[in-house]
């Protein structure tokens, strides 16, 4: 069997994975806080037929070697944490992080997940939660009957009560940063999970120690650029076509070899 069949086949599988990743980026073009993924590839094992620098004669050394590759494979999907565009909503509980950092979300099992999606709400108990009903951590409870609520750039949450002239502070937002945010694992629901590759979270109040500040009344949209993804899709499709041509050429060569006896 010709080696080229398997080599070109690995290239087709690689480009299929490339298209899968691009499709996921495009599907989340309007997902709040979504960060696009970039697929990365590497070449496979090489078979060395002649070592470079080996001697063919006592005084004759090969200047180059003879190697043949066996295709490519997907090796990583890197999350690109560039800032997405801001969309004004005028909802005081819609928050964006201008800079680095993640909101902390408490899961039902007590663990902490992380997100860039700042579309928060108030549940029936007055707690600030995300769209899935998970608590923002540290947990903040809003009193009943408030006139208004506001969130400062430093993460201080304040409310105005009826009959009062001064705002009352009810909580302090905290943000988490990571040494290697690309090492976080996607969980779905716009949530990330800490991994050994990401390192331990560094928790602090907004606008301190490299942590971004918080802006109220805005949402951070996806950082997916549609034109860029469409160009990547065209390149991947053409690469898939070229690899399929290599499979077709290998098949025709095998057919020619099979017909030599006739």
Judged by helices, strands and strand pairing, the structural class is: alpha+beta
Q: Please tell me the overall pLDDT.
A: 90
Number of domains: 2
Radius of gyration from CA coordinates: 27 Å
In this structure, how is the largest beta sheet organized? 5 strands, antiparallel
Give the terminus-to-terminus CA distance.
20 Å
Principal-axes geometry comes out as: elongated
Number of helices: 2
Low-confidence stretches at least 5 residues in length (pLDDT < 50)? none
Order of helices and strands: HEEEEEEEEEEEEEEEEEEEEEEH
Number of strands: 22
Q: Strand-residue fraction? A: 25-35%
Helical residue percent? 10-25%
Structure description:
- The structure is a single chain.
- This protein is of the alpha+beta class.
- The protein has 2 domains: 112 residues, no CATH class; 135 residues, no CATH class.
- 22% of the residues lie in helices and 33% in strands.
- It contains 2 helices and 22 strands.
- Strands 9, 10, 13, 17 and 20 form a 5-stranded antiparallel beta sheet that branches. A 3-stranded antiparallel beta sheet has the order 14-15-16, with no helix packed on it. Strands 1-6 form a two-stranded antiparallel sheet.
